[in-house]
Write a structure and sequence with these properties.
Layout (H helix, E strand, L loop, with lengths): L25 H4 L8 E3 L17 E4 L2 E2 L3 H14 L4 E3 L3 E5 L7 H7 L2 H11 L3 E3 L8 E4 L9 E4 L5 E6 L11 E4 L3 H9 L9 E3 L7 E5 L6 E3 L9 E9 L19 H26 L6 H11 L1 H12 L10
Antiparallel strand pairs: 1-2, 3-12, 4-5, 5-7, 6-14, 7-14, 8-13, 9-12, 9-14, 10-11, 10-13
């Protein structure tokens, strides 16, 4: 187990704090509960071989509370103020805010909260930390302009682990449910190749009791979406990403998809720091554990594994833009 990455002490150029926000206080703003049920990846049809290298076998949870009533009020106020910074986040999502933790102290402190992180570690059954790339912390999705459009199309995430929180009041919405497919990514891809979407009898529609409630997710493995609204309304969700503190686990990131989404001044610095952090700890493990009697092939394999994230990042940066993956035409 390694230590998590510290949140940057400085902010990117052009990112200013929202004025007059209420200061995050876990005693006031949190009311963390437990989900009534948990699904595993096996429940979704994944074989043991599909799960090798993953930090957890959790797929998705039932809704559980994170924020108190007051916490939900402050979160909604901050999200409404951040709406001014929405941008199209690929063909998947029309209105999203990325990098909100560089603008909202409340959002930053919620996303970094040790209390929430401990709760997520319990759910995943593995030590996790808020993702080392802050662009993945506190991602906000807002309702689309066109009513018939999905808030977020069927997809699996560019990051490994996360929760999806309702920020606006779900009781005031018609439609716009958060849904996930009880199936594998390969099944979703096969359906998409035939112009089909996940069948309704294998789709779970999450019913959130109120704002500040969330669903835990293995986002990189579970195909999910924000469904279209049936009537106009304010729909805001927040996604906070986590990753394993055991760097022997797979990265499970598609950072290349973000080249067309995030500010490059922010993205590339965070990307470099992230893979360097993982490679440093993996190389330290090689330094500690390389045994006498190691042959050339074994030595090469250890070193290649240690720096595979760096090599992959270099290749992705050179390849450049690609559209974010999803399962709808």
């Amino acid at each position: 187990m390694i230590a998590p990455v510290d949140f940057p002490s400085s902010r990117p150029q052009g990112y200013e704090w929202l004025p007059d926000e209420e200061v995050f206080d876990p005693e006031v703003h949190l009311d963390i509960g437990e989900p009534e049920f948990v699904h595993t990846l096996a429940d979704f049809g994944y074989a043991p071989s599909d799960c090798e290298g993953l930090a957890t076998d959790l797929a998705a949870t039932g809704p559980f509370r994170i924020l108190s009533d007051r916490g939900a009020e402050v979160m909604l106020d901050s999200a409404r103020r951040l709406r001014a910074f929405t941008r199209r986040a690929s063909t998947r999502v029309e209105n999203a805010v990325r990098g909100g933790c560089y603008r909202s102290r409340f959002l930053r402190d919620l996303c970094l909260s040790p209390d929430v992180t401990a709760a997520m570690s319990r759910l995943y059954g593995a030590p996790v930390a808020p993702h080392a790339m802050p662009v993945h912390l506190g991602h906000l999705n807002f309702e689309p302009t066109v009513l018939t459009e999905a808030v977020d199309k069927w997809h699996h995430d560019t990051i490994p682990l996360d929760y999806v929180m309702m920020v606006s009041d779900p009781a005031l919405l018609k439609g716009g449910h958060f849904e996930y497919f009880v199936g594998t990514k390969s099944e979703a891809a096969d359906l998409a190749s035939r112009g089909q979407r996940p069948p309704l009898d294998r789709v779970v529609r999450c019913e959130f009791p109120g704002p500040g409630w969330a669903v835990g997710l293995h986002g990189n493995m579970v195909v999910h979406r924000g469904a279209p609204l049936d009537e106009p309304g304010e729909r805001i969700t927040m996604v906070n990403a986590y990753e394993s503190l055991d760097v022997a686990h797979d990265l499970q990131c598609r950072t290349r998809d973000l080249i067309a989404v995030d500010d490059h001044e922010v993205l590339f610095a965070e990307w470099v720091r992230h893979v360097a952090w993982r490679a440093r700890h993996r190389l330290e493990s090689v330094e500690r554990e390389a045994p006498f009697g190691l042959n050339a092939d074994g030595a090469i394999a250890m070193l290649e594994r240690a720096v595979e994230d760096v090599r992959s990042a270099i290749d992705d940066m050179r390849a450049g833009y690609r559209e974010s993956e999803h399962y709808e035409q």
